Amino acid sequence: DPLTLHSSAKAEGRSDLIASIKLRHCCLLRNQRCVTAYLYDRLLRIRALRWEYGSVLPANVRFHMCAEEVQWFSQYKKSLASFMRSLGGGEGLDITQDMKPPKSLYIEVRCLKDHGEFEIDDGTVILLKKNSQHFLPRWKCEQLIRQGVLEHVMS
Amino acid sequence: MDTQSYLPVQPGVGMQENFLSLDDILLSHERLPIRTECAFPRLGYLEKATDAQDIPQGLYERKRRVLSVELPKVYREGWRTVFNADPNVVDLHKMGPYYYGLGSQMLHFDSPENPEIAQTLLQTFIGRFRRNMDSSQNAYNEDTSALVERLDCLEKFLFTSGQSGLNGFQSWEKGRASQLTASSLVLNYRKRKMADVPP
Predict the structure, then answer these.
(1) What ipTM describes this predicted complex?
(2) pTM of the predicted model as reported, rounded to 2 decimal places
(3) In A, residues 104-123, which contact B (CB 8 Å cutoff)?
(4) Is A13 touching B (CB cutoff 8 A)?
(5) Which of A19, A51, A141 lies at the smallest CB-CB distance from B38?
(6) Which of A17, A97, A135, B134 is the most buried (most CB within 10 A)?
(7) Would residue B54 be called left, alpha or beta, if left means φ above 0 and alpha means ψ between -120 and 50 degrees?
(8) Cα separation of B134 and B147, whole Å?
(9) Per-10-residue mean pLDDT for chain A, 155 residues long?
(10) Is residue B147 within 8 Å of B133, Cβ to Cβ?
């Protein structure tokens, strides 16, 4: 602890060491700043993933997160979820949907990669095969478009 | 316009620095020529008195009574005259990519030339601003590397901001504002060759 070092240096008549103590302390503070800023920036990116990707992170991203970050993400998710539930007089509102004002209920989408089977509300199962095109409910597709699985085709 | 969810910590304004801003950390990493005014016993890598040393600017901040700092060339009278004559011809990226940021931080060191330094910083920015704004608002769908390569980081940030507004407006005009798009964050992670999402 530099303050104790500093005062004990004075007390023992080693005030010539004070400059060194100060400089070394400066270096430590600098390192601390770099580490803190790095970790904070990681959290900002993890938080952004909740909005841009969804509430379940892909395994490869989670692989690169430390346990505390995974826990932080899970708590952030919970806070967001309880906030969303409280909107609309207790009815709840998913604010991660319809980030752009919707123009129609159904949209044309093209599949950018194989994604397997996909069930829509009336029970129909669609096979999302690469390059296939479908006419689907907008709200069902929104997340898959954000994740880069589907592409919104404009006529 | 794509709504951004990743909002990194912005650099501080003027003489302020933001502790968590990555830009501010990078700019304070620039080396400054200094002179040590006293001995640093037991720190073998520093010599006494007249040796001129280079130390990252961020380390200097707290050491005022014990070190003295020389102004980097870019902020001294010689270069100031060049900037005052015609700010548009200078390659600010080469002159240390954080010209404005570092210049503002140098004002903390109470040099007698501070008023002139501050004035030059301001006038340089004003002199270049018009051209930067024009090019950022008019370069649509083209390679902007030639426009951007001589800008300092602050100017680059403003340029990118202007481009983003221009692109957003153009896409709205084309009726593409309602088109749902993939998240740029996701696309970036993809580009770095991460494995595909399991279905």
Answers:
(1) 0.80
(2) 0.82
(3) 107, 113-116
(4) no
(5) A19
(6) A17
(7) beta
(8) 11
(9) 73 73 84 95 94 88 94 97 91 88 90 87 86 90 89 86
(10) no
